[in-house]
Design brief:
heterodimer; A: about 200 residues; mainly alpha; B: about 170 residues; about 75% helix; globular
């Protein structure tokens, strides 16, 4: 029994196979491209936040009423909360280098679960925090106390459009994330079938 | 160039030289399609190079290389939608199954390596991993280290692998 197995091992180890030679420069270039993708994604995530802070900050400074300054301040606070939630719940974490396959699969499973749960609950930690800020802008705008001189009819039109857009974005965003969570659930089930069961 | 970059590049260069053929065999064992095999092999090399940034020398280079390579291949298989529907079997099922193919095929496929590769591709990935490590000459301890399986589980699988190879190749090995 052992001879046949040893012969096959020798045959296997002497099998000709494709050799790959990749220069260090090529590796560094590929790594740089990968890091650039992550930086772009982070830029979009945090860039939007910075944009809101700058715009709301200017609005608060220009506003002549406490209602305007309060609404802008609440919006900045809501954005800060959402960015913190995004960082805590949905940020990608690199797999441990050199882990055993079982440990890596456990890590991947835990990550898939974490991201699935984040997507399934996005209505609560991503969209809901914005409601107080949008509600303040809507109410104060309708009352005419934060228009900064803009005619009330135009302010009210702007408020209506903003509320409708926010509600639509909320609904579509939640639906897309639920679909994403279902996709991740299928990946988890695939991984479970892949793993050793005994 | 800073010293850290040199160390990572040097480690990779040595590993690629020492284990290049083994990595090529592994890519063939996890991917049948030639183009995708080439992509997988490049991904394995890239993953290996990146991993050496974190290599502390707590394990042997061989163990480290095989862990990274097999993990990259496992991720490749998990992402492949076609592979998910493949009818993989475990070692016990393969041992009990009759040798596939008719006489004509057996004569035409006199190449034991082709038959071995066909056998490997039938196996469920966890059993395939142990089979490949056994074929590459790693002992049970290293295999347990790389796979994360218990030494007892590895020993059982290796025993089944030896029985399987003896049954399938005893009369046809060149």
């Amino acid at each position: 029994m052992t001879d046949a197995a040893d012969d096959i091992r020798s045959l296997w180890q002497s099998m000709p196979s494709e050799t790959v030679y990749i220069t260090a420069d090529a590796m560094h270039a590929r790594a740089a491209k990968f890091q650039a993708r992550i930086r772009t994604r982070n830029f979009i995530e945090y860039g939007a936040f910075v944009f809101v802070v700058v715009v709301m900050g200017k609005f608060a400074l220009d506003s002549t009423t406490w209602q305007g300054k309060t609404a802008a301040g609440v919006m900045i606070a809501c954005c800060s909360l959402v960015v913190w939630n995004l960082h805590r719940r949905a940020r990608a974490i690199a797999a441990p280098a050199g882990a055993s396959t079982a440990a890596l699969l456990d890590f991947q499973r835990a990550e898939l679960i974490r991201q699935r749960d984040a997507m399934a609950s996005v209505w609560r930690w991503y969209f809901l925090p914005f409601v107080p800020a949008f509600a303040l802008f809507a109410v104060f705008g309708w009352m005419g106390v934060i228009g900064n001189g803009v005619p009330l009819e135009r302010v009210r039109l702007g408020v209506t459009i903003t509320v409708v857009l926010f509600a639509a974005t909320f609904a579509i965003g939640v639906l897309l994330n639920l679909l994403g969570a279902a996709h991740l659930q299928r990946q988890i089930e695939t991984l479970d079938r892949y793993k050793e069961t005994h | 160039m800073d010293a850290r970059r040199l160390t990572q590049d040097e480690h990779y260069a040595r590993a690629a030289a020492d284990f290049g053929p083994a990595l090529g065999r592994l890519a063939r064992a996890y991917e049948r399609d030639a183009d995708r095999q080439r992509d997988l092999l490049q991904d394995i090399h890239f993953a290996l190079w990146r991993s050496f940034e974190h290599f502390q020398g707590l394990s042997s280079v061989r163990t480290w290389v095989y862990r990274v390579a097999h993990n990259t291949a496992a991720s490749h298989v998990l992402k492949d939608k076609r592979a998910r529907t493949a009818r993989w079997v475990d070692l016990e099922q393969v041992i009990d199954a009759p040798d596939p193919g008719n006489l004509e095929q057996a004569h035409a496929e006199n190449d034991a390596l082709a038959r071995l590769m066909s056998l490997i591709h039938q196996l469920k990935p966890p059993d395939r991993q142990v089979m490949l490590l056994y074929l590459d000459g790693l002992d049970a301890k290293e295999t347990a280290d790389i796979t994360g399986l218990s030494p007892g589980a590895v020993a059982t699988k290796i025993h089944r692998i030896k029985a399987l190879l003896a049954r399938r190749f005893n009369t046809s090995t060149p």
